Amino acid sequence: MTATLDFWFEFASTYSYPAAMRIGALARASDVKVRWRPFLLGPIYARHGWRDSPFNVNRVKGRYMWRDLERRCAAFGLPFARPARFPQRSLLAARVATVAGGEGWAADFSRAAFRASFAEGRDLGEPTTIAALVAALGRDAETVLARAAAEDIKARLRDETAQAEALGVFGAPTFVVGGELFWGGDRIDDALDCARGR
Amino acid sequence: MTATLDFWFEFASTYSYPAAMRIGALARASDVKVRWRPFLLGPIYARHGWRDSPFNVNRVKGRYMWRDLERRCAAFGLPFARPARFPQRSLLAARVATVAGGEGWAADFSRAAFRASFAEGRDLGEPTTIAALVAALGRDAETVLARAAAEDIKARLRDETAQAEALGVFGAPTFVVGGELFWGGDRIDDALDCARGR
């Protein structure tokens, strides 16, 4: 039986970007299967009384985070450009990733969306951006965007977010192996080790 | 010239414990000199409007942190026991570490205090605990505790805390090399690499 790891991520989350770009190769090297689980941090933050990213609420921490993210991306050889708007509006991307998850292309779409957002300065909240990303993957953008607006997809994303919260997820990225949570890109290796039963 | 790293830590900070226990050997192996810089997070948190540890304010995050800390300590071979009281009252320990810093025994005292707090379940806020730790280091506890209560020591700790804040420190442990900040025990290696000019 292949070991499995759930990768919970949010398109507006800064540290989800390097995690999304790295998890595929790392998991392959470890013979671990990754389940891409897009969810929304907004509703979970709102429950904590936060109406904005903690990195905006605490400007000093936010300043550090941008510098740290820049350094991390450089260390991983990932392009990085600070988005003009933060946090990005991630709802549409999360819904499209939910559609993609049912059709086997969630990883490809998610990596493309993170790259657009954190490397190319594109506005993820714009349907035209999402449509272009979908089309670049050889999918029919109109069909996919219509599907992303369907009630069952909206409900599925809400359910996923509720499941993340029920698991104890409070931030992104979070890697879950069985009942064990690993929060943050710095825990990828630990999570993979855990998945392999080490 | 030996490369130098400033290790800013807070005795009540959970992740400062493994950092304090590891930094000495890691820095020696990297030929980097460590300056132990005790400070108080309380005044900095208060400026953000927090009256308690973020791990208590956000119980879900707190629950994760304790599990993560337990796992980290196990991975590092460090004993760990969750303190009965969190956060511990760290003012006296910070003042004694400030005294010790002027006399060359800050690292020894700090490691002993962290061990007492996070491995032995002792109450750091109790002067008897601190006195015992000081005495175990072969110092006269009465003299040291009197010194710790002197106005110049209190002022020096306030100044150090103000300097940490001015540097952009918002949490502990934080490693500072030149103007570059590295927050969290996960950044020890990056900070040492930076100190060596890599």
List the helices and strands and how they pair.
The structure is a homodimer of 198-residue chains.
Chain A: E1 3-9, H1 16-29, E2 32-38, H2 41-47, H3 54-57, H4 59-76, H5 91-101, H6 106-118, H7 127-136, H8 141-148, H9 151-167, E3 174-177, E4 180-183, H10 188-195
Parallel strand pairs in A: 1-2
Antiparallel strand pairs in A: 1-3, 3-4
Provide an overview of this structure:
The structure is a homodimer of 198-residue chains. By secondary structure, the first copy, chain A, is an alpha+beta fold. The first copy, chain A, has a single domain, classed as Glutaredoxin (3-Layer(aba) Sandwich), CATH 3.40.30.10. Helices cover 56% and strands 11% of the residues of chain A. Chain A is built from 10 helices and 4 strands, in the order E-H-E-H-H-H-H-H-H-H-H-E-E-H. Chain A has a 4-stranded mixed β-sheet. In chain A, strand 1, helix 1 and strand 2 (32-38) form a beta-alpha-beta unit. In chain A, helix 5 (91-101) crosses helix 8 (141-148). The radius of gyration of chain A is 16 Å and the shape is globular. The first copy, chain A, starts with a strand and ends with a helix. The model of chain A has no long low-confidence stretch (mean pLDDT 96). The A-B interface holds A 48, 58, 60-61, 63-64, 67-68, 71, 75, 168, 170-171, 181-184, 186-187, 190 and B 48, 58, 60-61, 63-64, 67-68, 71, 75, 168, 170-171, 181-184, 186-187, 190.
